[in-house]
Amino acid sequence: MRPRTIPGSSGHVRPLRLLGDPALTEPCQEVTVFDDELARLVEDMYATMYAAQGVGLAANQIGVPLRVFVYDCPDDEDHRHLGHLVNPRLVEADGPVIRGPEGCLSLPGLEAGTPRHDHAVVTGVTVTGAPVTVTGAGFFARCLQHECDHLDGGLYVDRLTGLRRRRALRAAAKAPWAGTAGAAGR
Ligand SMILES: [Zn+2]
């Protein structure tokens, strides 16, 4: 394969927005223009996700309020799922709800047991506007639900309750990056 076909290889790593940054809590807008700028955004998102060793990244995590996410994520059988979705819609989230470890590039170094459905289907389009349907199970289903939440202005900590939520927010407040949110990327 030619190097230029590797996602993100021509992209630029952009600064990540962290918990507390308003970009993460505003719902993103539908993409209406499918141009080079959108293609560059997706490339930059792959590059940023790989640089941060993440398995998924939503556009608002780099401060772009558009409904786009990228992923390179294993499922529970260690099959790799790689791709991007523009204007994704979570059309199915069902099966048993499983509480499993979940982290986020916007809360670096932290993880919490978060409940998610074991099966998810997301429809959307590619960067060129071609329709796609992505089906996930296990950890990949978790990833799809996590990224869709981002585009609606949600974070996994919003899915936590009680002691788990208090623990997660306390850990975030004590994290080395706490208080830097909002300054990132400027
Ligand atoms: Zn995230």
Automatic annotation (TrEMBL):
Gene3D superfamilies: Peptide deformylase (3.90.45.10). Pfam families: Pep_deformylase. One of its GO terms (molecular function) is peptide deformylase activity. The active site is at E147. It comes from Streptomyces tubercidicus. The keyword Ribosomal protein does not apply. Its EC number is 3.5.1.88. Signal peptide: none annotated. Binds 1 Fe(2+) ion. The lineage of its organism: Bacteria, Bacillati, Actinomycetota, Actinomycetes, Kitasatosporales. One of its GO terms (biological process) is translation. Removes the formyl group from the N-terminal Met of newly synthesized proteins. Requires at least a dipeptide for an efficient rate of reaction. N-terminal L-methionine is a prerequisite for activity but the enzyme has broad specificity at other positions. This is Peptide deformylase. Belongs to the polypeptide deformylase family. The gene is def2. Fe cation binds at C104, H146, H150. Its cofactor is Fe(2+). Keywords: Hydrolase, Iron, Metal-binding, Protein biosynthesis. It catalyses: N-terminal N-formyl-L-methionyl-[peptide] + H2O = N-terminal L-methionyl-[peptide] + formate. InterPro entries: Peptide_deformylase, Peptide_deformylase_sf.
